[in-house]
Write a structure and sequence with these properties.
0% strand, single chain, mainly alpha
């Protein structure tokens, strides 16, 4: 009983340590996302994505990278794009970009696991989109796509309705006094949709780090066996572990750090990170949005894409000599608290988050919309 209590305390401390190491970068990422959402509307994007050519796919990728990193919000936006006429490939490209190419994900990977993982995540995000495009074009189910576009959604749907500042140009929008309010509201909306995933990710990683012995992970990931066997098996296992842990978006980065320190291959960690779009709750979202047949198709396309991309990135980074050595001391580093740059950055960005929270409380979203309708901006 004493050992369980001790391990539980260590797990909670580990979870907090992971949050402490990454807190400021989360606020920075959410701020960048909120600013971009305030200046670029979904309608503008939607009108440009009716085809699945290279231009439309590139635009969807850029739009996704500039959007929220919340997988559920991204799925809602992607659904809106698709059902309003966007082609299937750009709609799915938006999903991959919005959960793999966003700033905050790269920052957290950098501070927890090092630059090779940040590079592999961002480069791999592009590779994911290229592979997905090829797979969809080779298997395109035209009839199923049209059925999914018309599929009725029980109970309606909830869109990620970001606040967009009025104005013809960026300069006009910057002059709007309501701009900072819109940014604060978008920031709060992203955080509201993501905080459960974040807490879940930190807690799951903390408890697995405290309660699961390294030998269990070593056996599961075939540590010490031939790379010709371990690398493909790990790439196949990574998404499956992500599916059953229920953690999506940047909430799975702490768990990825634990897996990396426990012996999983570089490609296996990447496959786990890429798989935030096929966790069980999101598969159910796809079922409600598009029907179970389309949800099964999306799962098959995504899973095969994630495994292939992870294998390609593992081989490429190995050839380049960019695969880092696993850090067996990562658990101890997570609970090493000092008054250093992390402390001061958390203090600074914590104050910024508090300011956004105040603005969001002071000017609720309905108030902002009424102000827009009246042609006024209350500050």
């Amino acid at each position: 009983m004493h050992e369980i209590a001790s391990n539980t305390g260590h797990a909670l401390l580990m979870a907090f340590g992971m949050f402490w190491k990454t807190g400021w970068s989360l606020v920075l990422g959410f701020t960048i996302s909120a600013i971009l959402q305030a200046f670029v509307s979904t309608d503008q994007i939607r009108r440009a994505l009716g085809r699945d050519g290279a231009k439309e796919i590139a635009l969807a990728t850029i739009a996704g990278a500039a959007s929220s990193s919340c997988s559920y919000a991204s799925a809602a936006i992607s659904r809106t794009l698709f059902k309003k006429g966007a082609a299937l490939v750009p709609s799915l490209a938006f999903l991959f970009a919005s959960t793999n190419l966003v700033v905050e994900l790269g920052l957290i990977l950098y501070f927890l696991m090092g630059w090779p993982f940040t590079a592999a995540e961002w480069i791999g995000g592009v590779v994911l989109i290229v592979i997905m495009t090829i797979v969809v074009r080779l298997t395109y189910p035209a009839r199923l796509v049209e059925e999914a576009r018309r599929h009725p959604e029980p109970g309606g749907s909830h869109e990620h309705a970001a606040m967009v500042v009025a104005g013809a140009t960026w300069r006009d929008k910057l002059r709007e006094p309501a701009a900072r309010i819109a940014v604060a509201q978008n920031f709060a909306m992203d955080f509201t949709m993501l905080w459960k995933d974040l807490i879940g990710g930190f807690l799951i990683a903390g408890f697995l780090a405290a309660f699961v012995p390294d030998g269990v992970w070593a056996g599961l990931f075939l540590t010490g066996t031939s790379p010709w066997l371990q690398i493909p098996v790990n790439a196949l296992l990574g998404p499956i572990i992500a599916v059953v842990t229920f953690v999506c978006s940047i909430g799975n980065v702490p768990m990825a750090a634990v897996l990396w320190g426990s012996g999983i291959s570089f490609g296996g960690v990447l496959a786990f990170l890429y798989a935030d779009l096929i966790v069980l709750p999101l598969l159910d979202v796809y079922r409600r949005y598009y029907g179970w047949r389309m949800a099964a198709y999306i799962f098959a396309v995504f899973y095969s894409t994630m495994v292939l991309a992870a294998l390609i990135m593992d081989v490429a980074f190995t050839l380049l000599g960019w695969v880092p050595q696993p850090d067996p001391n990562i658990r101890a580093e997570m609970v090493d608290f000092q008054i250093d740059y992390t402390f001061w950055l958390n203090l600074l960005f914590g104050a910024l988050a508090a300011y956004f929270a105040y603005l969001n409380w002071r000017y609720p979203m309905h108030h902002h919309r009424e102000a827009e309708d009246d042609g006024h901006a209350h500050t």
